[in-house]
Amino acid sequence: MAANVLPPRLKKTDSLKMDKSKSSLEILMQMGFSKQRSEKAIAATGDRGVQLASDWLLSHVNDPSLDINEPRQYMLYLCPVGPLQKLLTVFFEKSLSTCGWNGAHSYFPHITLTPFFTVEDSKVSVLKHALNKAETVLKQAPGSLQLDFFSQNNFIGLFVPDTYFRYLSEVVSQFSAELKKAGISMETHKKQLHITLAYQYAANQNDMLNKLAKEIDLSAPCQWDLRIYSRDPKFAKHEVRKVIKAYQPCLIDELELIDGDFILVDPHEYTQSKDQWYQGTSWLTGISGMFPGPYTVRTAETWTWTLHGSLPLTEANAAIAIEANGEDHYDNLWRDHRDDLYAKIVKNKKEQNNVPEKKKGPRKLYVMRHGERMDFIFGRDWCEKCFDATGNYKRIDLNMPKTMLKRNNFLDNVKDAPLTTIGQMQTLITGEFLLEIGTVINHVYVSPSFRCVQTATGLLKGLGVSVPLHIEPGLFEWLGWYQLGLPRWFTPQELQQHGFSVDTSYVPYISGPKLDFDETIEDYYKRSGEIAKKILKKHEVEGGNVLIVGHAGTLDVCTRHVLGKSPRSSGEFHDICPKVPYCGICVIQEDMQSKKWSLQQDFVPPLTHGQNKLSTGGIIHLLKS
Prior knowledge:
InterPro entries: Cyclic_Pdiesterase (IPR009097), His_Pase_superF_clade-1 (IPR013078), His_PPase_superfam (IPR029033), Phosphatase_SH3-domain (IPR051710), SH3-like_dom_sf (IPR036028), UBA (IPR015940), UBA-like_sf (IPR009060). It contains 20 helices and 19 strands. It is α+β, with helices and mostly antiparallel strands.
């Protein structure tokens, strides 16, 4: 048969036969999930597809309530969309920033059409069917809905006029009748229909809230959507807090804080806690634990609700519908927000477990220099330029970090400078390249210098793995440069509190106080080489590759002794150090038979970039000259 010749097909078809008749429930059960769990996931995600439901199940794999059969609570809302919605959102933001939290901030602007009602997870599909059945009456709205302003002590709202109340009652009645056919009971709303603007606030806030509320242009165009939402009943009386800073647990009873997650908290926690640590439950995972309150901020509970369906109200004989503004806050996020979040937590779980299997092959030791450091770019006096007398930080160059971690004394940054913005990018880019070429890192040891901790963290992030850092003072650079005293480093516990993945149980081979200020260059080679040999010996049985992140000299001093070579002279050492680039990496590999180590050929390309010096006086001075 001739090579590379495409043979003709005797039977051809342009269509791929696929069984598209299977429901999400059937597919999830075919994937191995139980019927109860599958139905629960479909309900929790609004029956929006198998992918989202399976992501939800995987993120809730350790949720203790996963197998508890507790139906969700549902409600029917009428929600404004368009210019009026935007004005209402602005009011909510202004009232919060001006007068503080009140009861209305727990929800987005809406008209409640029904009290909460429960639906078994197995009957969730009935909700969309009932909503679709109401579509005809939704197209017969009696003109534009004009709300009436109302205010009294401790309450401000916008009320629905009687004519529209009767029409909306008919909509709810038809929706209820469809649910009743499926055995679902739902009461109608007994109170006068309205949008709550503010309630449960201090009496002295009344005048300001009324002033802000009266600035809302109630004649602004608006489209109204009929929507079905649901919530988890076990958190009905809980406060919702949004994670604003990630946190990795230090103790077994602590809760991981994931960027984008929400924490559900019993309000009694605030009166019981004396240290701003509270017991809470992750919305993304269902796992409970202690978390640091300052890493979260209170937000509306509706962020954790699930949208099950939405249809617009349209006036009879209406020619033009109001265009919804895609930038409007809550409208956008209810539809798309949770997809990425659930996928994110599943991805994070994979990354957390993505400490690669230790293959039985030759071990490698990767030794790396930190990224670009602040003091080498902006001078030793950079702290004087960026901090005021009270320690407040101001970013004066885009290559400086946006924020600085709090230290006991901001001047500690002088001797323990962080990475620049470019330095942080260097670490991430290097890690991403290591990922591309299939590099495996199993154990990480780091000099206590903050720039080294940042470098290791950035590299691992780019590599897509989560490996705890072992802070080893014995890996610090030559002490001849520190005759006036050591830097004041972050402790492992402090680093962990700031969100770094650090093994706080690790006992270093050499603690900071035991470092010898009188060491020679030869002593420095001996100290670093012995530390490297002890680290490799520690992991000899279990195997795996080791990463050491240190300083310019680290690449030579941590490998030369392991390679069986004698220390370099002082002149040779000082000649090598300036030539090691930021994020430079060297690799030595162990021979499995002889157990001897050898230096490997460079495999990481250089990361070259030019200078971009600051012009004295800035651009304006340059152009005026």
